[in-house]
Write a structure and sequence with these properties.
- The complex is a heterotrimer of chains A (168), B (149) and C (146).
- Chain A has helices at 31-43, 61-73, 89-95, 108-116, 132-144, 152-164, and strands at residues 22-26, 48-50, 79-84, 102-104, 122-126.
- Chain A is α/β, with parallel strands linked by helices.
- The termini of chain A are far apart.
- The mean pLDDT of chain A is 95.
- Chain B is built from 6 helices and 5 strands; from the N terminus they run βαβαβαβαβαα.
- Chain B has a 5-stranded parallel beta sheet with strand order 2-1-3-5-4, sandwiched between helices.
- The longest helix of chain B has 15 residues, at 133-147.
- Chain B is globular, with a radius of gyration of 14 Å.
- Chain C has 6 helices and 5 strands, in the order βαβαβαβαβαα.
- Chain C has helices spanning 11-23, 41-53, 68-75, 88-98, 112-124, 131-144, and strands at 2-6, 28-30, 59-64, 82-84, 102-106.
- In chain C, helix 1 (11-23) links the parallel strand 1 and strand 2.
- In chain C, helix 1 (11-23) packs across helix 5 (112-124), helix 2 crosses helix 3 and helix 4 (88-98) packs parallel to helix 5.
- The radius of gyration of chain C is 14 Å and the shape is globular.
- Chain C starts with a strand and ends with a helix.
- The chains are: A alpha/beta (168), B alpha/beta (149), C alpha/beta (146).
- At the A-B interface, helix 2, helix 3, strand 4, helix 4 and helix 6 of A face helix 3, strand 4, helix 4 and helix 6 of B.
Chain lengths: 168, 149, 146
């Protein structure tokens, strides 16, 4: 199925307001939806890294959270999209790593808010929860929304992280 | 059950509604604030609730802000916490079953009180599953070992 | 008997729902669409609505991309009370307080497992408090029915 023909919003490369490449990871419960996201990113010409291209590898979400977080920590990816059954577990595990700020989203408004107010660099969602139409709208908002400058909430999150996570 | 609940300014009204429901259902509820529509930053309630749950001073916690995202990001940085940001009943149920989420994060700008109450209720009532799931929670603990203070 | 109808955007979810209900021992009848390339949701909303209003099916489920168009179409059939529900509490409300006889969903909006929870709530909730509301709905319908 062609996701653009099905109505996914077109995003021009120059409208992308978040760093790329985007790292993608899923477990097997998020596998199919991740492939719709890949189709979408390819159609919009956006660079991505797929942590687990082989479905057979995909069993335990924390492995993929760690791998995706590794890309964010070493700078080989600047943003991320994580997908599991609900979007919760894969995000929780990734957030245990410094520098990963993941907002789980149910709708595009939340993705926009996560970028604008929290400067979230990762979003997560669930294949069992959210249809692909809404999921791609969320990806669209995530990629094209800039973080507000000097936003207090984004600063607070990063300060609080220093209290609880080791320096890396 | 002994529950800790907290919110920022955006979550005050929903927090009060949930608190009333929980007290009516016979739970003990420790409200860490915001207590009135005072200025309350996004980190105050999540840090307090996360530390209480991690220390065993409360069995589970509930956090409410505009979308649930800020609370989840902050609470998840605390060792021992699995904070789930949910907007629907299915996710609230499954996050307990699979992730044994010990804090539920709700968005006052996302869910109405009917759905929020249903999410909290099913999350409290659902049994934690065995099988592959405890192994994955252990993998989260390993990440905490690596990165958390 | 549960009547199920959809358009191409709802096809996959509709078949997943049927699989789920049949595994519970419930009898289902699929009323279309049959062509995943171009089909018009109003026909399939109507087909399910007619099956329910004529008593051939006790309940109906209709699915299109958002769930909106097909639920509007089903609601045009006299005797149909179709509710578009994304969540268990709203599905319970729709059954309990409105005696909703058709459940609608958006195949592009909601994930399958989440919707199956909603389907179960819809199937398992009795219309215990619906009498007055149904009387009001019937009264409005009588004003506008041919």
């Amino acid at each position: 199925m062609d996701v653009i023909k099905a109505g996914a919003p077109r995003l021009a490369k120059e409208d992308v307001k978040i760093g790329t490449p985007v790292v993608l990871a899923s477990d097997n419960a998020g596998w199919e939806l991740k492939h719709y996201v890949i189709q979408y990113l390819e159609a919009c010409g956006i660079e991505y890294i797929d942590c687990n291209p082989d479905e057979g590898m995909a069993k335990d979400y924390p492995d993929w959270s760690a791998k995706a977080a590794g890309h964010i920590m070493d700078g080989s990816a600047k943003s991320g999209i994580l997908i599991c059954g609900t979007g919760i577990g894969i995000g929780v595990a990734a957030m245990k790593c410094p520098g990963v700020y993941c907002a789980r989203c149910d709708d595009p408004m939340q993705a926009r808010y996560a970028r604008k107010v929290l400067d979230a660099n990762v979003i997560s969602f669930g294949q069992r929860v959210t249809g692909f139409g809404v999921a791609l709208e969320m990806v669209y908002e995530f990629l094209r929304t800039a973080a507000d400058e000097n936003c207090a909430e984004a600063k607070i999150i990063r300060e609080v992280e220093k209290k609880f996570l080791k320096e890396v | 059950m002994k529950l800790a609940i907290g919110c920022d300014n955006n979550g005050y009204v929903l927090k009060e509604t949930l608190k009333r429901e929980l007290l009516d259902a016979g739970h003990e509820v420790i409200d860490v604030g915001a207590h009135v529509l005072e200025a309350h930053t996004i980190d105050e309630a999540p840090v307090k609730v996360a530390q209480m749950v991690a220390a065993g001073e409360a069995e589970r916690g509930i956090l409410i802000d505009a979308t649930g995202a800020a609370s989840a990001i902050i609470a998840n940085k605390v060792r021992g916490i699995r904070a789930a940001q949910v907007g629907d009943y299915y996710s609230a149920r499954m996050t307990k079953a699979h992730n044994d989420a010990n804090i539920l994060c709700l968005g006052a700008g996302v869910v109405g009180s009917t759905v929020a109450c249903a999410c909290v209720k099913v999350w409290l009532e659902t049994e934690v599953m065995g099988g592959n799931h405890p192994r994955r929670i252990e993998m989260i603990h390993q990440l905490e070992e690596k990165y958390a203070k | 008997m549960i009547a199920i109808g959809c358009d191409p955007a709802g096809y996959t979810l509709a078949h997943r729902v049927m699989e789920h209900l049949e595994a519970q021992g419930k009898e289902c009848i699929f009323l279309g669409c049959y062509d995943v390339n171009h089909s018009n949701y109003p026909y399939f909303g109507e087909a399910v609505g007619v099956a329910v209003s004529e008593g051939k099916a006790e309940r109906g489920i209709v699915i299109c991309g958002s769930g909106i168009g097909i639920s509007i179409a089903a609601n045009k059939v006299p005797g149909v009370r179709a509710a578009l529900c994304f969540d268990v509490p709203t599905a319970e409300y729709a059954r309990k307080n409105l005696d909703a006889n058709v459940l609608a969903a958006g195949g592009r909006v909601i994930g399958p497992e989440r919707f199956l929870d909603v389907v179960d709530a819809f199937m398992n909730t009795e219309a215990s408090a619906a009498k007055d509301n149904v009387a009001l709905i019937d009264k409005v319908e009588a004003q506008f029915r041919k």
